[in-house]
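Hello support,

Our group uses your service weekly, and this is the first time we've seen a run hang past the timeout. The protein is SH3 domain binding glutamate rich protein. I'm not sure whether the cause is the sequence or the server load. Input pasted verbatim:
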Amino acid sequence: MVIKVFVATSSGSIAIRKKQQEVVGFLEANKIDFKELDIAGDEDNRKWMRENVPGEKKPQNGIPLPPQIFNEEHYCGDFDSFFSAKEENIIYSFLGLAPPPGSKGAEKAEESGENEAQEGEEDAGDPAEAGEETMGEVTEEGAEGEAEEEEAEKGEEEPGEEGEDS
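Update from on-call engineer: The timeout came from a worker crash unrelated to the input. Re-ran successfully.
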């Protein structure tokens, strides 16, 4: 699965250039494989991007501005969606990717996977497909699980802290 980031390399807008740099920089820093596709120099890229951004995600003028992010042909979102996902620490879910091993997101995915296996085996499909079909639900469940995990961690830390102070 390749993340595609549609950019305009010759954009005159400083705001667009900054948004593009932030997306590309984040992906590079986190070693997420992606392909940068220029819509300014390649008419095919521009046409493909405009045709594949869902109607409800297009601005009023109907022409989506870069950066636009896709996972193969699956639309992930624009800069605002990317920024929100980054702030909420759900970027891998946003991109339709599995979190890297050893990350906080991977631990949560393993825990939720164990819980799902205990509840029933009916959801035992391809995890990538499940994530794409229910991306919004996964996000909400992930947020609830995160809050529960934080509460559990606080409960574990308090007795240990009291013992150390004694």
